[in-house]
């Protein structure tokens, strides 16, 4: 059973069954609410998600949209958009204990992607930092 949680450990969750989708979102709303350049999401039926420990806080980023996060450490965790995706709980892929088990299948909201995102893969890469490795 896949499990996950926030950075400080106050919030822990589990899911059952199979995910409905696994995608990378480039929208501005995800960017600003997570502080991440892009965000990977795994979607499950809402009833498949159980918060095992703690109580996430909720932020309404737009009408009918709930983004939930840990009030202690600020980790973004869940996204619920009943108008657009009824009955779906989107979970930030990187908060799973084993995020490698959820490879994304597609990019969404490319209209909001920053112009230089496309060139990221061409930049110099270091295992840690320049000069160390
Ligand atoms: Zn936390
Ligand atoms: Zn988004």
Describe this structure as you would to a colleague:
By secondary structure, the protein is mainly beta. It has one domain: Metal Binding Protein, Guanine Nucleotide Exchange Factor, Chain A. The chain has one helix at 28-34, and strands at residues 3-5, 12-15, 21-25, 39-45, 49-53, 57-62, 65-69, 76-81, 88-92, 106-108. The strands form 2 sheets. A 7-stranded mixed sheet has the order 6-7-8-9-4-3-10, covered by helices on one side. The protein has a 3-stranded antiparallel sheet with strand order 1-2-5, with no helix packed on it. A hairpin with a 6-residue loop joins strand 7 and strand 8. The longest helix has 7 residues, at 28-34. The termini are far apart. 23% of the residues are buried. The mean pLDDT is 97. The protein binds zinc ion (2 copies). The site of one zinc ion has 9 residues, from loops.
CATH class: Mainly Beta
Q: Whole-Å distance between the termini?
A: 37 Å
**What's the number of helices?**
1
Structural class comes to mainly beta
The low-confidence parts are: none
Morphology call: globular
Mean of the pLDDT scores?
97
Helix proportion of residues, in percent?
under 10%
Whole-number radius of gyration? 16 Å
CATH overall fold name? Metal Binding Protein, Guanine Nucleotide Exchange Factor, Chain A
Q: Cofactors and ligands present?
A: zinc ion
What is the number of E strands? 10
